[in-house]
Every structure is written in C-alpha cells, then in structure tokens.
Amino acid sequence: MSKKMKIQDYHKSNALGSSDVRAWIDSCPSKWMHRKEMNKSTDAMTFGQLVHTMVLEPEKFDEEFAISPFDSFRTKEAREWKKEMIEAGRNIVDSKLISKAEAVRNKIMSHQGAKKVFDGVGTNEQDFFWTDEATGIDLKYRPDRVKGLSVIDLKTTADASPKGFLKSVEKYAYWIQAGFYAKGFLAQFGQLPKHFFIVAVETSFPFEVAVYKIAEHDIQLGIDIVNKSLREIKKTMDSQEYLGYNKDELFTTLSISNWTRAQFEEGMNE
C-alpha cells in the first residue's frame, strides 16, 4: 500500500523498516526492543534531513523546517517560539545552516551522475507498506527516489571517496538497506530493481559528490540477511523473550581475533 506521509508519522508507524532490521543485527533483542526511545536526533541527522528536503522535496521546506529569527533562546519570546515549532514537528535551523545546505544541493545538481539520477520522471519519498509473506511481519520502506527500475538513495557523509565511503557502506550496512529496499520494490512493483545507486555528498567544503552502485551480489546477500533477521525477529516476538547480550547463558567467552593473535605470537618468536 502506497502512502504519502509526514516523515514523523512514517517513523511512528509500527511496521518495521530497514533501520529496524539493521538495528537487530547490530544489537541484542533486549536493547532492540527499546530502539525508538534510544534513537535521538543529532545535528548531523538534522542537516541530512535538510539536504534531503532541499534536493528531493523543496516544496515541503516550510512544513518540515523553521528558520530561527533569534540569536539565542534565552528570552521568553524565543523559548515560546521554539516550543511552538517543536510541537508543530518542525526542525529549527539557522540561516548559516541553510546557506550550507544550499551549497550542498547546488554541488549535487552540478554533478553529472547525480543530476542524471535526480532529473526526469520519478517518485521521491514515497512510502510503501507491505506484509512479509514468510513471517507475517508488517514492513515499510521510503526510498529517497525511484526512477524506472532504479532505487536512488542520498547520503551525507564525512568522506565520499571510494575507500572512505566503502567504510560507511560496511559500518552502516547500506548493502543490507539495499537488500531490504529490494524486497520492498518487489512487493510494490512485482520485480526486483536493476540498480541501487547511492549519491554520497560530503558535509564539509568543497562538498564533493560521488555516485556509487551497490554490487548485485551484495544486494542479494543483503536480501538473505534481511530474511534471516525477520525469521529471528518473528521467533522472538512470538516467544516474548527479549534476551540480552549473554542470551540465556551466565557468561560469554571472548576470544581475540586471529589477526591480533598472529601479531603477538610473531613477536614472541623474536
């Protein structure tokens, strides 16, 4: 089912999204159960959302953001204005941050590869909800952009170089996100996407941009990992046993990596 929702309402829905599945992989069931209470907004997240809005949905800027007319929030008038904006679900930004986001947007749209995926007919920030056939779990995804058989994701990052951004792809499991989105695309359109592109833009001057494509075999592995995780989540939800890091054991034995062991063992032979 396709919807067009406010981003806050999308996040509040009980269906599981890509970030929920990736959080399951990186954590324990006990901590995963409290993931929404732990997920607090940061300045980096606010800037990322600002760039997304300016590039993908500029018409929603006034709905999602408010430019502060105050230098600080020490006065009663300023505090009341801030409270009103927060209650309206608007992120508060200053003119300096707006100028930075505009520079980022302009750099993105001047990049040949980024301009190609963002230009032309496509849908931006379209919500889709479906039920996983294997587990019965309600799922959701909100791709930044769908253009034909391609899914495009916009990422702000400290390092958009091939070597640097690959670290982000692995650290934040963007390849698993690609697998999750492939499942959503299949449920929505009846076929898998042919491409998953990431437009990566650096958040510091001169705001370098690069476009990357996630390898097909990595997306397939991502699909497999998502399916495995959903089975585990289903089992845990049915049993209501949200165990901690030690699971049902009194302790867990830790063993150093083979690389670390080899470095020290080599030194012992000298």
Order of helices and strands: EHHHHHHEHEHHEEEEEHHEEHH
Principal-axes geometry comes out as: globular
The fold-level CATH name is Lambda Exonuclease, Chain A
* CATH architecture assignment: Alpha-Beta Complex
**What is the CATH C level class, in words?**
Alpha Beta
Q: What proportion strand?
A: 15-25%
Q: Major beta sheet, specifics?
A: 5 strands, mixed
Average of per-residue pLDDT values: 93
Q: Which strand order does the major sheet show?
A: 4-7-8-9-10
- Rounded to an integer, what's the Rg over CA atoms? 21 Å
Describe the structure.
The chain is α+β, with helices and mostly antiparallel strands and 270 residues long. The chain has one domain: Lambda Exonuclease, Chain A (Alpha-Beta Complex). The protein has 13 helices and ten strands. It has helices at residues 7-12, 18-26, 29-32, 35-38, 43-56, 61-64, 76-87, 95-109, 112-118, 162-171, 174-189, 216-239, 258-268, and strands at residues 2-3, 65-67, 91-93, 123-124, 127-131, 138-141, 145-147, 150-157, 195-202, 209-213. The strands form three sheets. A five-stranded mixed sheet has the order 4-7-8-9-10, with helices on both faces. α2 runs antiparallel to α11 and α11 (174-189) crosses α12. The N and C termini lie far apart (66 Å). The mean pLDDT is 93.
